[in-house]
Amino acid sequence: MSKTIVVVHRTFAASKEGVTQWYELGKDHKNSFMNQVEAAVRSRGDVSSITWRVFRWSGANVHRQRLAAAEALYAEIRALLAASPTDELFLIAHSHGGNMALKALELLWRREPEAESVFEALYARLVSNGFPDRLLRRAS
Question: Model-level pTM?
């Protein structure tokens, strides 16, 4: 089974001319994030192919822009699921990118109740580093 990993950057980390962001370092860069994640996956004996996608958004610290980006991420998730229904889909998000990923998953859950198993699998595979998860801790 193949894996598709979507990386969602944090606020203030949009692509900038003359600056290479951490998520823009491809597999050709020895110490890239992608290579580190793949090495960790391979160290567990998983040899399935991995396709990387970077979800780009404005990176602005504006709530309505994050909501718009969550809508776009939801649309990308739907397109990926339709194009490769047998792939495992993972979301890796940093900071407010994690909030956007959660919102995109909420949109999937609310708009497509028949996709509950897909929602549960994606939610379980959401990996987020440093995103404000105070609401999740309060809910549990």
Answer: 0.81
pLDDT in tens, 23-37: 777 778 888 888 888
3-state SS assignment for residue 86: coil
Which pLDDT does position 130 carry in this prediction?
Answer: 53
Phi, psi of 69 (to 5 degrees): -65, -35
β-strand partners of 82: none
Q: Is 132 helix (H, G, I), strand (E, B) or coil?
A: coil
In single-letter form, the type of residue at position 45 comes to G
Q: What φ, ψ does residue 30 adopt, rounded to 5°? A: -50, -45
Q: Quick one: CATH architecture of 3-139?
A: 3-Layer(aba) Sandwich (3.40)
Q: What is the distance between the alpha carbons of residues 67 and 64, in angstroms, rounded to a whole number?
A: 5
Answer whether 98's CB lies under 8 Å from 70's CB.
Answer: no
Q: How many H-runs (helices) and E-runs (strands) does the chain carry?
A: 5, 4
Domain ranges of the chain: 3-139
